[in-house]
């Protein structure tokens, strides 16, 4: 008996190891040590088809290509060999040890994960130059045009980034690899609404260019300040020596790094001569006003006094003068408001402080004159603007300084308060609690309801449990319901990722695949165009709707290799949603 028991245990271990060896999901890298200027290929491969592949975040790397999907399916000596691979091409951001985290996938309802791999990134290495890359580098230039290199402190300057491309070179895509921080500047980006191709000259030669970004800067320190370069990785298309069957020259795609270069701004301090003592750093061209919402009111009513500065300059960076009022006026903390827009000319608009004032006594109260000083860039001198004096006339109310024993308001005598022995009669010292509901709870309707409800709930609980067990045992139904949930989930993720090409089309493709699995009861390995077309036709779906569905799947595959605008992504999303809706209505 012991021998039989040992044999059974051994067979169980062997069978378990064989079953676990059937599924392999692993990470392969092109190299484990590479230079900062090299590219890394990462392959996630599996020997059995699966669903819902999730790649790692690739911290410390930029994704320059992928995900590319490939499937190998072959038969050798009657034995099937299958491999599916997701490939990514990465560029390291920094030197050191970087980790490729685990990827995950679901295969037959089980989630598998790959092992993590550590990549060592060294300094840049010398590589033989690709002739196409040399041509593209000579024909593509990123330029930062600065409006003024010697501004005053707090004077606005603009930086316009232009990408120049020679006529015989094309650009299909680009991405930022290094975004300047603008240390020691107040900055705001003004991104163009659309990229407009314009003609211009670069080093005396004709070029085409697009404006990628506009940035407004206000220097916050004097001296030499550095604007770090904006860096891009541009996918360029350059002509080769090969031609197609029609004699047209073939194009080659190369990745070209470009940078706008480092610029130094020499910021001048504001002159000391003539600087007012109350100067708060305002630079520009301004107007200053002090206004009140009321001129006349009664005591204990409120009014608003508004101190505002409007015009053009560093409005968000200046300090407004404080309002000082007599002690007989109750003043609350001001409410600050900004109505400022930023354009290439700098900040324009208005900033204000609104004070709520409540007078306590009758009389006339002057609001003292206040002033605002600023540095005028046109005349390069300091200017001061003073407000007019405002009078607040309180018509009715107590007179300040009158005897408190005689008057509470003008002509109104004060009444003495007479106390009596019943002044604390509202406090009950003895409890007299009487129940208003004299009916007994025992043997009442509520009593029997509370007693019998748990017993009546037992059959319902048994029925609910049996249905749940039945549903848990329905493997096919659960798989279809899960696919339907995943379809809705990924469709929602695609909508959130509009504008991000890779994430959008990966989510949209997953949504479409899971939708077909739920509707047609098929596996991922059966998701071929012919099988989809045949099954949808058998379920009486119109041919035009089937073609639209196939076109969306093709767009998901092609979009990874072609430049796509947000408008095109929105169109593909709307088309996918409407096509799914039509299939739901037509399918039988």
Could you characterize what this model shows?
There is one protein chain. This protein has 588 residues and is an alpha+beta fold. Helices cover 25% and strands 39% of the residues. It has 8 helices and 32 strands. The chain has helices at residues 2-22, 131-139, 445-473, 475-496, 501-520, 529-538, 543-558, 566-586, and strands at residues 25-29, 33-35, 40-46, 51-54, 61-76, 79-92, 96-100, 104-107, 110-113, 117-122, 140-146, 157-165, 170-178, 185-190, 198-202, 205-219, 223-227, 231-243, 249-259, 263-267, 284-292, 296-297, 303-313, 329-331, 335-343, 346-359, 363-367, 371-376, 381-386, 390-394, 407-409, 412-413. The strands form 10 sheets. Strands 11, 12, 14, 15 and 16 form a 5-stranded antiparallel beta sheet that branches. Strands 21, 23, 24, 25 and 26 form a 5-stranded antiparallel beta sheet that branches. Helix 5 (501-520) packs parallel to helix 8. The longest helix is centred in the last third of the chain and has 29 residues, at 445-473. Pfam families: BatD. Residues 1-21 form the signal peptide.
- Amino- and carboxy-terminal Cα gap: 59 Å
How many distinct folded domains? 4
Radius of gyration: 38 Å
Tally of strands: 32
Give me the CATH fold name of the largest domain.
Answer: Immunoglobulin-like
Instruction: Count helical runs.
Output: 8
CATH hierarchy, class of the largest domain:
Mainly Beta
Helix amount: 25-40%
* Largest sheet report: 5 strands, antiparallel
pLDDT under 50 segments (min length 5)?
A: 14-20, 403-420, 422-426
* Arithmetic mean of pLDDT: 79
Please indicate the percent range of residues in DSSP E strands (runs of 2 or more).
35-45%
At CATH level 2, the architecture of the largest domain is: Sandwich
Strand-pairing-aware structural class: alpha+beta
Give the overall shape, derived from the CA principal axes.
flat
């Amino acid at each position: 008996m012991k021998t039989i028991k040992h044999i059974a245990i051994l067979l169980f271990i062997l069978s378990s190891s064989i079953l676990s060896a059937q599924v392999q999901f692993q990470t392969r890298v092109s190299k484990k040590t590479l230079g900062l200027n090299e590219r890394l290929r990462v392959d996630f491969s599996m020997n059995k088809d699966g669903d819902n592949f999730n790649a790692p975040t690739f911290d410390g790397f930029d994704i320059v290509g992928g995900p590319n999907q490939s499937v190998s399916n072959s038969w050798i000596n009657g034995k099937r060999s299958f491999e599916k691979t997701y490939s990514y091409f990465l560029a390291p951001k920094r030197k050191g040890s970087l980790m490729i985290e685990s990827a995950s996938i679901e295969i037959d309802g089980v989630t598998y994960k790959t092992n993590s791999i550590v990549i060592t990134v060294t300094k840049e290495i010398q590589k033989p130059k690709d002739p196409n890359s040399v041509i593209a580098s000579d024909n593509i230039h990123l330029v930062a045009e600065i409006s003024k290199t010697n501004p005053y402190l707090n004077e606005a300057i603009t930086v316009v980034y232009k990408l120049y491309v020679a006529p015989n070179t094309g650009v299909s895509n680009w991405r930022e690899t290094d975004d300047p921080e603008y240390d020691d500047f107040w900055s705001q980006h003004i991104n163009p609404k659309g990229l407009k191709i314009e003609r211009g000259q670069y080093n005396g030669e004709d070029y085409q260019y697009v404006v990628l970004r506009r940035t407004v800067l206000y220097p916050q320190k004097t001296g030499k300040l550095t604007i770090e370069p904006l860096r891009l990785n541009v996918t360029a298309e350059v002509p080769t020596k090969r031609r197609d069957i029609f004699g047209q020259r073939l194009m080659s795609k190369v990745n070209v790094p470009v940078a706008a270069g480092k610029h130094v701004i020499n910021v001048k301090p504001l002159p000391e001569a003539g600087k007012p003592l109350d100067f708060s750093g305002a630079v520009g061209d301004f107007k200053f006003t002090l206004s009140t919402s009321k001129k006349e009111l009664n005591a204990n009513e409120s009014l608003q006094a508004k101190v505002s500065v409007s015009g053009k300059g560093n409005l968000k960076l200046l300090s407004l003068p404080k309002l000082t009022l007599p002690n007989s006026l109750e003043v609350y903390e001001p409410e600050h408001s900004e109505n400022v827009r930023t354009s290439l000319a700098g900040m324009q608009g208005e900033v204000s402080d609104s004070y709520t004032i409540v007078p306590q006594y009758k009389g006339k109260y002057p609001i003292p004159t206040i002033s605002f000083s600023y540095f005028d860039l046109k005349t390069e001198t300091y200017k001061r603007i003073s407000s007019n004096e405002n009078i607040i006339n309180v018509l009715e109310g107590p007179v300040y300084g009158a005897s408190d024993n005689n008057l509470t308001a003008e002509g109104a005598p004060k009444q003495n308060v007479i106390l009596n022995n019943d002044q604390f009669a509202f406090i009950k010292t003895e409890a007299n609690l009487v129940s208003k509901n004299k009916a007994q709870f025992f043997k009442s309707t509520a009593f029997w309801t509370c007693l019998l409800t748990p017993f009546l709930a037992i059959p319902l609980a048994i029925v609910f449990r049996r249905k749940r067990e039945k549903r848990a045992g329905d493997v096919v139904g659960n798989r279809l319901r899960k696919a339907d949930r995943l379809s809705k989930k990924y469709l929602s993720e695609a909508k959130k990722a509009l504008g991000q090409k890779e994430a959008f089309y990966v989510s949209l493709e997953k949504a479409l695949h899971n939708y077909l699995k739920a509707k047609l009861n098929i596996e991922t390995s059966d998701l071929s165009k012919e099988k989809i077309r045949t099954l949808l036709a058998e379920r009486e779906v119109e041919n035009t709707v089937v073609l639209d569905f196939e076109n969306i799947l093709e767009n998901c595959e092609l979009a990874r290799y072609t430049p796509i605008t947000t408008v095109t992504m929105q169109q593909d999303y709307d088309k996918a949603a409407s096509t799914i809706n039509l299939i739901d209505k037509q399918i039988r």
